[in-house]
Please model this.
Amino acid sequence: MLIAPSLLSCDFSQFGNEIKRMDDAGADYMHLDVMDGHFVPNITFGAPVIKFVRRFTDKVFDVHLMISEPLRYIDDFCNAGADIITFHVECDSGIDETIEKIKSRGVKAGLVIKPRTPAEAVFPYLDRLDMVLVMTVEPGFGGQSFMADMLPKVESLRGEIRKRNLEVLIEADGGIGEQNIKQCADAGVDVAVAGTAVFKTDDPRAAIAKLKSLCV
Ligand code: DX5
Ligand code: ZN
Model:
């Protein structure tokens, strides 16, 4: 299991150093939650901020766009140094066009599904995706409770990816911690996002190691 700490739970006055701290703690990806106050009822940061913190690590920047019109900003996030860009299948941009735009920049592309969206919503795009992100909370805020009833969607995606012989990664995001990461692994999750579970502890290195060890 790869662990992607969600920087949404970090001390933003130390954003760069927090990324460095997660790198040192053994994080696999840096999960960066971009919110526009329109697609979700919260506002975080955008491409200029990501560009400034890019130099603090060489690890993968996994940028999760919770914005209504991702297509308009793909170039900005690519220029800022994103390695993977995931955007919501429920957004207002053309899905095909947005995937093509991301891939034309040599960046990995992923689609995200909210809790009320079925797994099948991404099936038409699966062959062109590098990742599918299954939300296990309603997007917008860290610190919410994990929705175990999202795991059948992970299983169904896993089955479809296997059936088509694809190499699409499955990521899960929201409320993941020691209590449920094994369930995620068993359902077929490859990358677990963890905000609270990694940041609200004194020892992020131990927290990440523990999360990984629970999956083997
Ligand atoms: C929620 C974000 C998540 C969130 C995860 O909209 O996409 O990445 O920060 O935080 P926890 O692990 O605290 O649920
Ligand atoms: Zn996220």
In short: The pocket of D-xylitol-5-phosphate (ligand 1) is lined by residues 6, 8-9, 31, 33, 64, 137, 139-140, 142-144, 173-176, 193-197 (CB under 6 Å).
